[in-house]
Design a protein that fits this description.
Length: 99
């Protein structure tokens, strides 16, 4: 199955199935494509009070989500160290013959 590609200026958030109560992982995760076509990662946390754990609300009583948008994570590539290359030994044709 091919990965869905968003149109420019569009994105999607999905519920984070790996979220555990009390951890710092976002409640929602997804991708967003800027109007210029750059792909970004978007994360959302349901705003909660640090002391009580209750959902925070705006001045009108509506709950809200805090967002973070950043470049997609690229795992570091393992370093390839320079391996010394041995030069082939010069072999004379007559030296390897047993007779």
């Amino acid at each position: 199955m091919e990965k869905y590609e968003h149109n420019n200026g569009k994105g999607t958030l999905f519920k984070n199935s790996k979220k555990v109560q009390g951890d710092n992982q976002p409640t929602y995760k997804g991708d967003f494509k800027t109007p210029s076509g750059e792909l970004l990662t978007i994360s959302g946390w349901v705003a909660t009070d640090r002391n009580t754990g209750e959902m925070r609300k705006d001045r009108y009583g509506n709950p809200f989500i805090n967002l973070s948008i950043e470049a997609p994570y690229v795992p570091p590539q393992p370093k390839v160290e320079d391996i010394p290359v041995e030069e082939p030994k010069e072999v004379k044709p007559d030296e390897d013959l047993p007779f």
